[in-house]
Amino acid sequence: MNLPLRTLGQTDIKISPLILGTWQAGKRWWVGIEDEESIQALRTGFAEGMTTVDTAEVYGDGHSERIVRAALGAVRDQAIYATKVFSNHLRYEQVIQACERSLENLGTDYLDLYQIHWPAGSFNSELVPIEETMAALNTLKQQGKIRAIGVSNFSLEQLQEASRYGRIDSIQPPYSLFWRRVEEELMPYCLREQISILAYSPLAQGLLTGRFAPGHQFEPGDNRADNRLFQGENFERAHRALAQLRPLADQYQTSLGNLALAWLISQPNTSAIVGVRHPHQALENAQAARLTLSAADLACIDTIGHTVTDHLDPQYAGMWNWA
Prior knowledge:
The protein is α/β, with parallel strands linked by helices. The protein has one domain (6-212, 255-292): NADP-dependent oxidoreductase domain (TIM Barrel). Helices cover 37% and strands 12% of the residues. It has ten helices and ten strands. Strands 3-4-5-6-7-8-9-10 form an eight-stranded parallel beta barrel, surrounded by five helices. Helix 3 (92-106) crosses helix 4 and helix 7 (232-251) runs antiparallel to helix 10 (295-309). The protein is globular. It starts with 5 loop residues before the first strand and ends in a 14-residue tail after the last helix.
């Protein structure tokens, strides 16, 4: 089943408005993940028109990439593969080697989109000059091993600096109705420069689905326990906002999650990376791309979202309380 495709940046690459996210398929920092279920979820999402998949070398040390290969290897020529190099591999030779590992893990001879996962220095990694990292990415592009370059978790200043050394066609920030920092500075710049926004955590790690009751406690090892949106007054405000969103979801005969996704992919230049653990989630999420929200309802949803985001502490750029 086809979804309307969008152009990635200034390339001729066509991506789906909903992108299959595979952090959870790597298993690390998640609980209860089964490989076969991940494979079936990815295949179901692809069949439903989510032809673009996003992964990373750091998701289970390549395990997520290998799951993508197992799930979609037979339809590689119809799929768009995006993966990422982590912040501890940003020296020139490290980028080249990391790309080769990802190509092997994914069972392909080219990547459609190769992204810097986190800026140099993140998680106490080495402060590698962006010029060096971009030189490696440009070499890979010239060799035909990657078709486009993207960044993830970059500030506006970091994006502008990277753009001095090569064409950046996408940025991957956390972005949802309940987390909207990207709208402040990054989005206007990306619109001017034709840089696609690939929003991760578009459902605020499931919070926007409404399935987490007040006081919910996550199992040990679940990264969502450190998500600021699940804590204290933020969590309480989110629940009040969800109560306001429910009548709109009912009006469109859809779920809270799909309402939030439909709002997000209606934002300028924005596609959403949706993590799927189970086939039924992929089936459900695909319906969001077929929802057409009225201008009045988009504005109403926007206003409700601000009742959460306007109270978030501006000193925290990140969504997680990670040390």
